[in-house]
Amino acid sequence: MSSTPHQVCAMLLAIAGMTCTLVSTVSLRWRTSSSSGTLITSTSIFEGLWMNCVGTSTGSVQCKKFSSLFSLSSYIQACRALMIISLILGLFACIISLFGLKCTKFGSSSEHTKGKIALSGGLIFILAGVCCLVPVSWYAASITQQFFNPQYVGIKYELGSALYIGWAGSVLAIIGGSLLCCSFKKKKKTGKKGGYTYNYNKSPDDDFKQFKEMRESTSTSRAYV
């Protein structure tokens, strides 16, 4: 079976994963305010990596960018950096993998070289997926810790939709990268020079006849001596 459909499917999965990563990065719903223990439910607060917003039951939303980078928590700054790194790695992986697909004409004409290029693109896709998985899980762990902390007096938040999109994107990128890596096949080793080669077309009777003739010729030469 040809590996071309295998590679195309892997590429589509990885691109879908990076698209989800991009949507998660720019989304404003990394965390949403919890309605438990509050009297006013007509107002909702939700935050992303870049700004926080306040929405009302009438549908109006007011957003405000974070005033200073240094005023943010350290884990939010780290999440920003990792998500941007994931997107950059995903872009590089898409470009490299296109040169490694067997259905593309540009790049190397050698099938083995294209396999190596596809393997490199798959590894970068896996790294991009991990770079997305880490900040999303870290952010979710921080929300969970604050929510169940009885001593925390601030606004309690719940997991936003952007976290689920980020998880889905990271898993798709890792699966797509793994499939690209699996499409690479090593070169088959050729037999060593001077090694014994077995002729399958040769029957055992021929070997017996050659052995018998050699034995008779040897016995005849000895008789003359």
UniProtKB/TrEMBL annotation:
<feature type="transmembrane region" description="Helical">
    <location>
        <begin position="161"/>
        <end position="184"/>
    </location>
</feature>
<keyword id="KW-0796">Tight junction</keyword>
<keyword id="KW-1133">Transmembrane helix</keyword>
<dbReference type="InterPro" id="IPR004031">
    <property type="entry name" value="PMP22/EMP/MP20/Claudin"/>
</dbReference>
<protein>
    <recommendedName>
        <fullName>Claudin</fullName>
    </recommendedName>
</protein>
<dbReference type="InterPro" id="IPR006187">
    <property type="entry name" value="Claudin"/>
</dbReference>
<dbReference type="GO" id="GO:0005886">
    <property type="term" value="C:plasma membrane"/>
</dbReference>
<feature type="transmembrane region" description="Helical">
    <location>
        <begin position="75"/>
        <end position="101"/>
    </location>
</feature>
<keyword id="KW-0965">Cell junction</keyword>
<keyword id="KW-0812">Transmembrane</keyword>
<comment type="function">
    <text>Claudins function as major constituents of the tight junction complexes that regulate the permeability of epithelia.</text>
</comment>
<keyword id="KW-0472">Membrane</keyword>
<dbReference type="Pfam" id="PF00822">
    <property type="entry name" value="PMP22_Claudin"/>
</dbReference>
<comment type="similarity">
    <text>Belongs to the claudin family.</text>
</comment>
<keyword id="KW-1003">Cell membrane</keyword>
<dbReference type="InterPro" id="IPR017974">
    <property type="entry name" value="Claudin_CS"/>
</dbReference>
<feature type="transmembrane region" description="Helical">
    <location>
        <begin position="122"/>
        <end position="141"/>
    </location>
</feature>
<dbReference type="GO" id="GO:0005198">
    <property type="term" value="F:structural molecule activity"/>
</dbReference>
<dbReference type="GO" id="GO:0005923">
    <property type="term" value="C:bicellular tight junction"/>
</dbReference>
